[in-house]
Protein backbone atom coordinates (compact mmCIF):
# COMPACT_ATOMS: atom_id res chain seq x y z
CA UNK A 1 0.00 0.00 0.00
CA UNK A 2 1.36 3.40 -1.01
CA UNK A 3 1.66 5.96 1.76
CA UNK A 4 -0.23 9.08 0.71
CA UNK A 5 1.94 11.21 2.98
CA UNK A 6 5.04 10.12 1.07
CA UNK A 7 3.72 10.06 -2.50
CA UNK A 8 2.19 13.56 -2.69
CA UNK A 9 4.80 16.07 -3.69
CA UNK A 10 5.32 19.23 -1.64
CA UNK A 11 3.29 21.27 -1.09
CA UNK A 12 0.58 19.01 0.31
CA UNK A 13 -2.67 20.96 0.02
CA UNK A 14 -5.11 19.36 2.43
CA UNK A 15 -8.78 20.23 2.73
CA UNK A 16 -9.22 20.38 6.50
CA UNK A 17 -12.36 18.69 7.88
CA UNK A 18 -15.32 20.85 8.90
CA UNK A 19 -18.50 19.34 10.27
CA UNK A 20 -21.47 20.13 8.06
CA UNK A 21 -19.34 21.50 5.23
CA UNK A 22 -16.73 19.08 3.91
CA UNK A 23 -19.09 16.46 2.58
CA UNK A 24 -18.37 14.36 -0.49
CA UNK A 25 -19.64 16.90 -3.03
CA UNK A 26 -17.57 19.76 -1.61
CA UNK A 27 -14.50 17.55 -1.32
CA UNK A 28 -14.70 16.70 -5.02
CA UNK A 29 -15.12 20.38 -5.91
CA UNK A 30 -12.00 21.25 -3.89
CA UNK A 31 -10.02 18.43 -5.47
CA UNK A 32 -10.98 19.66 -8.93
CA UNK A 33 -9.62 23.07 -7.95
CA UNK A 34 -6.27 21.70 -6.80
CA UNK A 35 -6.54 20.14 -3.32
CA UNK A 36 -4.33 17.05 -3.45
CA UNK A 37 -5.42 15.43 -0.18
CA UNK A 38 -8.91 15.26 1.33
CA UNK A 39 -10.33 14.36 4.73
CA UNK A 40 -13.79 13.31 5.87
CA UNK A 41 -15.83 15.14 8.46
CA UNK A 42 -15.29 14.26 12.12
CA UNK A 43 -16.46 10.68 12.78
CA UNK A 44 -16.97 8.98 16.14
CA UNK A 45 -14.75 5.96 16.78
CA UNK A 46 -17.19 4.96 19.53
CA UNK A 47 -20.09 4.92 17.07
CA UNK A 48 -18.19 2.71 14.62
CA UNK A 49 -17.16 0.32 17.37
CA UNK A 50 -20.79 0.19 18.52
CA UNK A 51 -22.35 -0.81 15.22
CA UNK A 52 -19.47 -3.12 14.29
CA UNK A 53 -19.87 -4.90 17.63
CA UNK A 54 -23.57 -5.58 17.23
CA UNK A 55 -24.50 -9.23 16.71
CA UNK A 56 -26.06 -10.15 13.37
CA UNK A 57 -25.70 -6.63 12.03
CA UNK A 58 -26.51 -6.67 8.32
CA UNK A 59 -24.62 -4.91 5.56
CA UNK A 60 -27.76 -2.91 4.76
CA UNK A 61 -28.07 -1.67 8.36
CA UNK A 62 -24.44 -0.57 8.37
CA UNK A 63 -24.77 1.27 5.06
CA UNK A 64 -27.83 3.20 6.24
CA UNK A 65 -26.19 4.10 9.56
CA UNK A 66 -25.62 7.89 9.90
CA UNK A 67 -22.00 7.35 10.96
CA UNK A 68 -21.36 5.16 7.94
CA UNK A 69 -22.87 7.82 5.67
CA UNK A 70 -20.35 10.32 7.01
CA UNK A 71 -17.52 7.95 6.10
CA UNK A 72 -18.68 7.26 2.57
CA UNK A 73 -16.58 8.66 -0.24
CA UNK A 74 -16.44 8.44 -4.03
CA UNK A 75 -13.56 6.88 -5.97
CA UNK A 76 -12.64 10.24 -7.45
CA UNK A 77 -11.97 11.57 -3.94
CA UNK A 78 -8.91 9.43 -3.43
CA UNK A 79 -6.56 10.03 -1.78
CA UNK A 80 -8.90 10.67 1.14
CA UNK A 81 -8.34 10.21 4.87
CA UNK A 82 -11.02 9.19 7.36
CA UNK A 83 -10.84 11.31 10.52
CA UNK A 84 -11.84 9.77 13.85
CA UNK A 85 -12.45 11.27 17.27
CA UNK A 86 -12.89 9.63 20.66
CA UNK A 87 -10.89 8.76 23.76
CA UNK A 88 -10.86 4.96 24.09
CA UNK A 89 -7.82 3.28 22.48
CA UNK A 90 -9.64 -0.04 22.12
CA UNK A 91 -12.56 1.56 20.26
CA UNK A 92 -10.20 3.45 17.98
CA UNK A 93 -8.53 0.11 17.19
CA UNK A 94 -11.84 -1.55 16.30
CA UNK A 95 -12.86 1.41 14.15
CA UNK A 96 -9.52 1.62 12.34
CA UNK A 97 -9.47 -2.09 11.55
CA UNK A 98 -13.04 -2.02 10.22
CA UNK A 99 -12.33 1.06 8.09
CA UNK A 100 -9.27 -0.53 6.52
CA UNK A 101 -11.10 -3.77 5.73
CA UNK A 102 -14.33 -2.21 4.46
CA UNK A 103 -13.55 1.22 3.04
CA UNK A 104 -9.83 1.20 2.17
CA UNK A 105 -9.22 4.97 2.34
CA UNK A 106 -5.75 6.46 1.86
CA UNK A 107 -5.28 6.88 5.60
CA UNK A 108 -6.73 7.49 9.05
CA UNK A 109 -6.46 10.68 11.07
CA UNK A 110 -7.00 11.02 14.81
CA UNK A 111 -8.53 14.28 15.93
CA UNK A 112 -6.81 15.81 18.95
CA UNK A 113 -7.68 19.41 18.25
CA UNK A 114 -11.43 19.97 17.99
CA UNK A 115 -12.46 22.64 20.56
CA UNK A 116 -16.25 22.25 20.11
CA UNK A 117 -18.06 22.26 23.46
CA UNK A 118 -19.91 18.98 22.92
CA UNK A 119 -16.66 17.26 21.88
CA UNK A 120 -14.75 18.62 24.87
CA UNK A 121 -17.59 17.72 27.24
CA UNK A 122 -17.07 14.06 26.30
CA UNK A 123 -13.30 14.32 26.83
CA UNK A 124 -12.66 13.91 23.12
CA UNK A 125 -10.88 16.11 20.58
CA UNK A 126 -8.58 18.73 22.09
CA UNK A 127 -8.86 17.23 25.59
CA UNK A 128 -6.19 14.74 24.53
CA UNK A 129 -3.81 17.70 24.57
CA UNK A 130 -4.09 17.78 28.36
CA UNK A 131 -3.96 13.98 28.62
CA UNK A 132 -0.94 13.24 26.48
CA UNK A 133 -0.53 9.71 27.83
CA UNK A 134 -4.01 8.78 26.59
CA UNK A 135 -3.32 10.45 23.25
CA UNK A 136 -0.19 8.36 22.81
CA UNK A 137 -2.06 5.17 23.73
CA UNK A 138 -4.72 5.95 21.13
CA UNK A 139 -2.06 6.32 18.44
CA UNK A 140 -0.35 3.09 19.48
CA UNK A 141 -3.64 1.19 19.42
CA UNK A 142 -4.49 2.41 15.91
CA UNK A 143 -0.96 1.75 14.69
CA UNK A 144 -1.23 -1.89 15.77
CA UNK A 145 -4.75 -2.28 14.34
CA UNK A 146 -4.09 -1.03 10.81
CA UNK A 147 -1.43 -0.70 8.15
CA UNK A 148 -3.07 2.43 6.77
CA UNK A 149 -1.05 5.66 6.91
CA UNK A 150 -1.74 7.42 10.19
CA UNK A 151 -1.86 11.10 11.09
CA UNK A 152 -2.97 13.28 14.00
CA UNK A 153 -4.65 16.66 13.66
CA UNK A 154 -3.96 18.71 16.73
CA UNK A 155 -3.15 22.16 18.11
CA UNK A 156 -0.14 23.89 19.64
CA UNK A 157 -1.29 22.83 23.07
CA UNK A 158 -4.02 23.09 25.67
CA UNK A 159 -2.81 26.40 27.11
CA UNK A 160 0.74 27.05 25.84
CA UNK A 161 2.18 27.32 22.35
CA UNK A 162 5.23 25.20 23.16
CA UNK A 163 3.36 22.10 24.34
CA UNK A 164 3.53 20.68 20.79
CA UNK A 165 7.33 20.52 21.05
CA UNK A 166 6.89 17.88 23.76
CA UNK A 167 3.71 16.19 22.51
CA UNK A 168 4.65 16.04 18.82
CA UNK A 169 7.71 13.77 19.25
CA UNK A 170 5.68 11.46 21.51
CA UNK A 171 3.08 11.03 18.79
CA UNK A 172 5.80 10.42 16.22
CA UNK A 173 7.43 7.78 18.43
CA UNK A 174 4.01 6.14 18.77
CA UNK A 175 3.80 5.67 15.01
CA UNK A 176 2.25 8.62 13.13
CA UNK A 177 3.25 9.41 9.56
CA UNK A 178 2.15 13.03 9.74
CA UNK A 179 1.03 15.77 12.11
CA UNK A 180 -1.42 18.47 11.06
CA UNK A 181 -1.02 21.32 13.54
CA UNK A 182 -3.39 24.22 13.98
CA UNK A 183 -1.52 27.33 15.13
CA UNK A 184 -3.69 28.02 18.16
CA UNK A 185 -4.15 26.45 21.58
CA UNK A 186 -7.40 24.98 22.86
CA UNK A 187 -7.81 28.07 25.05
CA UNK A 188 -7.68 30.25 21.93
CA UNK A 189 -10.53 28.44 20.23
CA UNK A 190 -10.60 30.25 16.90
CA UNK A 191 -9.84 33.64 18.43
CA UNK A 192 -6.50 35.47 18.17
CA UNK A 193 -4.10 35.20 15.25
CA UNK A 194 -2.68 31.75 14.54
CA UNK A 195 0.97 31.32 15.48
CA UNK A 196 3.16 29.02 13.38
CA UNK A 197 6.56 29.52 15.06
CA UNK A 198 6.44 26.29 17.04
CA UNK A 199 5.10 24.36 14.04
CA UNK A 200 8.26 25.33 12.18
CA UNK A 201 10.33 24.57 15.28
CA UNK A 202 8.88 21.06 15.51
CA UNK A 203 9.68 20.39 11.85
CA UNK A 204 13.27 21.50 12.44
CA UNK A 205 13.46 19.29 15.52
CA UNK A 206 12.40 16.14 13.63
CA UNK A 207 13.91 17.00 10.23
CA UNK A 208 15.87 13.73 10.08
CA UNK A 209 12.65 11.71 10.41
CA UNK A 210 10.43 10.89 7.46
CA UNK A 211 7.35 12.45 9.09
CA UNK A 212 5.32 15.15 7.41
CA UNK A 213 4.35 18.33 9.27
CA UNK A 214 1.38 20.29 7.95
CA UNK A 215 0.51 23.81 9.14
CA UNK A 216 -3.05 25.03 9.62
CA UNK A 217 -4.65 28.32 10.62
CA UNK A 218 -5.48 31.64 8.93
CA UNK A 219 -4.67 30.58 5.37
CA UNK A 220 -6.90 32.86 3.33
CA UNK A 221 -5.36 32.89 -0.16
CA UNK A 222 -2.55 31.57 -2.36
CA UNK A 223 -0.17 34.25 -1.07
CA UNK A 224 -0.69 32.98 2.47
CA UNK A 225 0.13 29.44 1.33
CA UNK A 226 3.44 30.53 -0.19
CA UNK A 227 4.37 32.79 2.72
CA UNK A 228 3.40 30.36 5.48
CA UNK A 229 4.72 27.04 4.20
CA UNK A 230 8.37 27.68 5.11
CA UNK A 231 10.10 24.41 6.06
CA UNK A 232 6.79 22.54 6.31
CA UNK A 233 5.51 19.86 3.95
CA UNK A 234 2.19 21.51 3.27
CA UNK A 235 -0.82 23.35 4.60
CA UNK A 236 -4.34 22.40 5.65
CA UNK A 237 -7.09 24.86 4.78
CA UNK A 238 -10.53 24.84 6.38
CA UNK A 239 -12.81 27.83 6.86
CA UNK A 240 -11.32 29.85 3.99
CA UNK A 241 -12.43 27.20 1.47
CA UNK A 242 -16.16 27.72 2.11
CA UNK A 243 -17.41 29.70 -0.86
CA UNK A 244 -13.84 29.75 -2.15
CA UNK A 245 -12.56 26.30 -3.21
CA UNK A 246 -10.51 28.33 -5.71
CA UNK A 247 -7.99 28.94 -2.93
CA UNK A 248 -6.41 25.67 -4.06
CA UNK A 249 -6.06 26.96 -7.64
CA UNK A 250 -2.77 28.89 -8.04
CA UNK A 251 -3.94 30.54 -11.28
CA UNK A 252 -7.34 31.79 -10.11
CA UNK A 253 -6.34 35.15 -8.62
CA UNK A 254 -4.49 36.25 -11.74
CA UNK A 255 -7.45 35.62 -14.06
CA UNK A 256 -9.54 38.48 -15.48
CA UNK A 257 -12.70 39.14 -13.45
CA UNK A 258 -14.98 37.94 -16.23
CA UNK A 259 -13.14 34.63 -16.44
CA UNK A 260 -13.20 34.25 -12.65
CA UNK A 261 -16.97 34.69 -12.65
CA UNK A 262 -17.37 32.04 -15.34
CA UNK A 263 -15.36 29.59 -13.23
CA UNK A 264 -17.43 30.44 -10.15
CA UNK A 265 -20.69 29.82 -12.02
CA UNK A 266 -19.49 26.52 -13.47
CA UNK A 267 -18.21 25.43 -10.07
CA UNK A 268 -21.53 26.20 -8.39
CA UNK A 269 -23.36 24.08 -10.96
CA UNK A 270 -20.81 21.29 -10.59
CA UNK A 271 -21.21 21.46 -6.80
CA UNK A 272 -25.01 21.40 -7.05
CA UNK A 273 -25.05 18.44 -9.44
CA UNK A 274 -22.72 16.46 -7.19
CA UNK A 275 -24.78 17.31 -4.10
CA UNK A 276 -27.95 16.10 -5.82
CA UNK A 277 -26.35 12.94 -7.23
CA UNK A 278 -24.97 11.93 -3.85
CA UNK A 279 -27.72 13.05 -1.46
CA UNK A 280 -30.76 14.00 -3.53
CA UNK A 281 -32.93 16.92 -2.35
CA UNK A 282 -31.21 16.81 1.06
CA UNK A 283 -27.94 17.60 -0.70
CA UNK A 284 -29.43 20.69 -2.34
CA UNK A 285 -30.86 21.92 0.97
CA UNK A 286 -27.49 21.42 2.67
CA UNK A 287 -25.88 23.27 -0.23
CA UNK A 288 -27.69 26.51 0.65
CA UNK A 289 -24.98 27.67 3.05
CA UNK A 290 -22.34 27.09 0.38
CA UNK A 291 -24.34 29.03 -2.21
CA UNK A 292 -24.54 32.03 0.10
CA UNK A 293 -20.79 31.80 0.76
CA UNK A 294 -19.90 31.73 -2.96
CA UNK A 295 -21.37 35.23 -3.29
CA UNK A 296 -20.27 36.75 -0.01
CA UNK A 297 -19.44 40.39 -0.63
CA UNK A 298 -21.07 40.42 -4.05
CA UNK A 299 -23.13 43.58 -4.71
CA UNK A 300 -26.22 41.45 -5.31
CA UNK A 301 -25.62 39.12 -2.39
CA UNK A 302 -28.69 40.34 -0.52
CA UNK A 303 -31.01 39.50 -3.41
CA UNK A 304 -29.33 36.16 -3.96
CA UNK A 305 -29.74 35.28 -0.30
CA UNK A 306 -33.51 35.46 -0.69
CA UNK A 307 -33.35 32.99 -3.56
CA UNK A 308 -30.71 30.63 -2.18
CA UNK A 309 -32.27 30.05 1.25
CA UNK A 310 -35.28 28.40 -0.39
CA UNK A 311 -33.71 26.29 -3.16
CA UNK A 312 -34.70 22.63 -3.19
CA UNK A 313 -33.64 21.53 -6.66
CA UNK A 314 -31.13 22.06 -9.44
CA UNK A 315 -33.87 23.92 -11.28
CA UNK A 316 -34.22 26.41 -8.39
CA UNK A 317 -30.47 27.09 -8.43
CA UNK A 318 -30.52 27.47 -12.20
CA UNK A 319 -33.35 30.02 -12.02
CA UNK A 320 -31.55 32.07 -9.34
CA UNK A 321 -28.34 32.22 -11.35
CA UNK A 322 -30.08 32.96 -14.64
CA UNK A 323 -31.97 35.81 -12.96
CA UNK A 324 -28.68 37.17 -11.68
CA UNK A 325 -26.68 36.90 -14.89
CA UNK A 326 -29.53 37.09 -17.43
CA UNK A 327 -28.00 34.16 -19.35
CA UNK A 328 -28.60 30.45 -19.56
CA UNK A 329 -25.63 28.86 -17.83
CA UNK A 330 -26.87 25.25 -17.81
Can you put this structure into words, describing what you see?
Strands 1, 2, 3, 4, 5, 6, 7, 8 and 9 form a nine-stranded parallel sheet that branches. It is globular, with a radius of gyration of 20 Å. Helix 8 (132-145) packs parallel to helix 9. The model has no long low-confidence stretch (mean pLDDT 91). The protein has two domains: 4-252, Aldolase class I (TIM Barrel, Alpha-Beta Barrel); 255-325. Strand 7, helix 10 and strand 8 (212-216) form a beta-alpha-beta unit. The relative contact order is 0.12. The chain is of the alpha/beta class and 330 residues long. It is 46% helix and 14% strand. It has helices at residues 4-7, 24-33, 45-53, 59-63, 66-71, 89-102, 117-121, 132-145, 164-174, 197-205, 222-228, 257-279, 281-294, 301-308, 314-325, and strands at 12-15, 38-39, 43-44, 80-85, 107-112, 150-157, 178-185, 212-216, 234-237. It has 15 helices and nine strands.
Spell out the CATH superfamily of the largest domain: Aldolase class I
Residue windows where pLDDT falls under 50 for at least 5 positions: none
Rounded to an integer in angstroms, the radius of gyration calculated over CA atoms is 20 Å
User: Level of helix content?
Assistant: 40-55%
CATH topology of the largest domain: TIM Barrel
Largest sheet: 9 strands, parallel
Large-scale geometry = globular
Mean pLDDT: 91
Tally of domains? 2
Amino acid sequence: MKNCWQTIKKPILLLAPMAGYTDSAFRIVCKNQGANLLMTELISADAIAHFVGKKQVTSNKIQTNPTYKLMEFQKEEMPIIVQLFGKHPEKFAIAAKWIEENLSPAGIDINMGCPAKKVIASNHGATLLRDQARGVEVVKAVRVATKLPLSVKTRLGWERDDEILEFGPKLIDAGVDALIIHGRTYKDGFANVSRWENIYALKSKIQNLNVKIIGNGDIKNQTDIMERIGNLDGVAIGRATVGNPFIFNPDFLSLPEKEKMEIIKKTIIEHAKLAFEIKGEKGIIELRKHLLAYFKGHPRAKNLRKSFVTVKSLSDIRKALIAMYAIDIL
